[in-house]
Structures are given as C-alpha cells and as structure tokens.
Design goal:
CATH class of the domain at 40-118: Mainly Beta
Largest sheet: 8 strands, antiparallel, barrel
CATH superfamily of the domain at 40-118: Uncharacterised protein family Atu4866
Pfam family, one: Atu4866
Distance between the termini: 65 Å
CATH architecture of the domain at 40-118: Beta Barrel
Strand order of the largest sheet: 1-2-3-4-5-6-7-8
Order of helices and strands: HHEEEEEEEE
CATH topology of the domain at 40-118: Lipocalin
Shape: elongated
Structural class: mainly beta
InterPro entries: Atu4866-like_sf, Uncharacterised_Atu4866
Strand content: 35-45%
C-alpha cells in the first residue's frame, strides 16, 4: 500500500472554505491560475447609485453600505432597507421584511416589480 508523502493537514482545525481552497489549489493552498472569481464587491459597486423609471414613478437609491431607499409615486412612505447582490440579481428587503427582486438587463437597466429603472 502506497504511503502519502505530501504535507500533513489536520482537518479538524480547518473550515470548509480552507479545505476547498486546498483541494482546488496546490500544496501551498493557492488556487490555480485558470480559476478566476468575480468579485461581488465590484458587481455591487457597479449598481450603487440612483435609479429611476422613465415616468419618474419609481426612484431607487442603492448605497455602497448595502442599504437602499425607494420612493414610489402615490405612496407617502419611503421604503428603506437592505439589499443583497447575487450575480445580476438584487434582492431588496425592506424594514418590514418584504423582499423585492430586481434583475439587471442587457441594456444596463434594472427590472423591478414591473418597472424598468435607468441611471
């Protein structure tokens, strides 16, 4: 039976992420060059700013600290809460717990609750 001569790793002190990094990389734990990971932070920052529908009925302000404000024509109360970016989709969660998805579309706009929002 062959004996393993590679570096010893005590799996009890490593978390799942560390073990996956070791499995995907070389013995030093570095990932091979063929793997590139998109930064969620860079995607998030490309969405930060003010968005508005063409008829000015919906105005959405996404902040860098993952909070937002949304004004809708005809409503007195401003929706406030947090958002999460997942690829080209954003999930807004207001202070009451209501969630609203928004999707980034090819022309750079956001589709949200039947409205198309532009910068």
């Amino acid at each position: 039976m062959p004996t393993y001569l590679g570096p010893r790793i005590d799996a009890t002190i490593l978390g799942t992420a560390s073990l996956l990094a070791l499995a995907a990389g070389d013995a030093r734990g570095t990932a091979p060059e063929r793997f590139t990971y998109a930064s969620a932070v860079s995607v998030q920052h490309s969405l930060v700013g003010r968005w508005e529908s063409a008829d000015h009925a919906v105005r959405l302000h996404l902040r860098a600290d993952e909070t937002y404000e949304c004004r809708v024509a005809g409503r007195d109360q401003i929706a406030r809460g947090t958002y999460r970016v997942d690829s080209n989709r954003i999930v807004l969660r207001d202070d009451s717990g209501l969630t609203t998805p928004a999707t980034r579309v090819d022309d750079g706009a956001l589709d949200m609750a039947g409205h198309r929002l532009y910068r």
